[in-house]
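User: I'm putting together a small comparison set for a docking exercise, and I want a reference complex before I start. The sequence is below, and the ligand is 2-phosphoglycolic acid. Could you produce the 3D structure with the ligand included, as C-alpha cells?
Assistant: Of course. I'll restate your input first, then give the C-alpha cells for the complex.
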Amino acid sequence: MTKKLIVGNWKMNSGFAESENWFNDFVENYEKNKSKLANKEIVICPPVILIDNIVANLMEYSLEKTQQDLKENNIDIKNIGAEKLSDLIMDHRPFMVGAQNCHFEEKGAFTGDISASMVHEVGCEYVILGHSERRNYHHESNKIVAKKLIQAHNHQLIPILCVGEDQKTREDKNHLEFIKKQIVESVPQDYKFNRLVIAYEPIWSIGTGLTPDISDISEMADFIRKICEEELSKVAKEFVILYGGSVSAKNAKFILDASNINGVLVGGASLKADDFFVISSS
Ligand code: PGA
C-alpha cells in the first residue's frame, strides 16, 4: 500500500448542522490544496444518523466535479458507460465514509442496533470494529468482535479492527502478548479479506493528549505486521496498520513519516475540518 489511510472517528459528536459545516469547510480546504491529499485515502466515520446526508452531499459534489472535468475535456457524458461514469464520480470524492460499529448478527430483534448490510446500503465502505470504548462500555469480547468482522466481510465493508492495551498492561510489559491475543482472537480465521485494517490504539492514549514515543509506536507496528504474517497470512491480501490515540495537527506528520505505519485513526481532532485537513495532508 502506498497511500496512507487517514480515518476520522467522530464518536457520539456532531449534529446535522455541524456536519454540513464540517463538509463545507473540508471541501473548501480540499479545493485549495487538493494535491496535498494525492497520496492519502481519507475516511470519515460519523454517527450513523448523519451518514445518509453526508453521502448525499458527497455524491452531489463529486457528480458536479465529474461533469466539470468532462466538459473541460470536451467529453460528452452520454458517451461514457454507466460503470465508467460511476468510477469517475467515486474518484472525485474528497473522502469516503465509514461507520463506527455494526451488529454481529445479520438481522433480527436487536433494538437500537445497526446491521452491516444497513451500513453498506447507506454508502459506507469501512466499519470500525472493536474500538476500546465498545469493548469497555458494551462488553464486546474478542469473540463478538470476530463475529462482527464476519458481518463486515459478508457485506463488502473493510473492517478497521481496533486493538490496544491499558496502562497497567503496558507498565507490566505484557502489551505485546495482550495485542497478539486480541488480534488472533478478533480475526475470524476462515474468511478471506481483501484488506484488513488494524488500528493500534493504546487505551491510555485515547483522548488524553498522551502519545507513546514514536519508537514504541514503531515497535508495535512491526510486531503487528509480524503477527499478521505469521498467524493471518491466509486471512487477508493486504494488512494496513494504523496508529490511534491523541493524534493531532501537531503530531500527525511525525507519526505518518514512519514508513511502517500506514496511517492514523483520529478521534477528537477529526471534529474540526481544518485540523483534520492538516492531519490528512501531513
Ligand atoms: P482521540 O481518539 O484521537 O480523541 O484520542 C482516538 C480514537 O478513539 O479512535
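The pocket of 2-phosphoglycolic acid is lined by residues 9, 201, 206-207, 244-247, 265-269 (CB under 6 Å). The beta strands are 4-9, 40-45, 96-99, 126-129, 158-163, 193-200, 236-244, 263-266.
User: Thanks, that's exactly what I needed.
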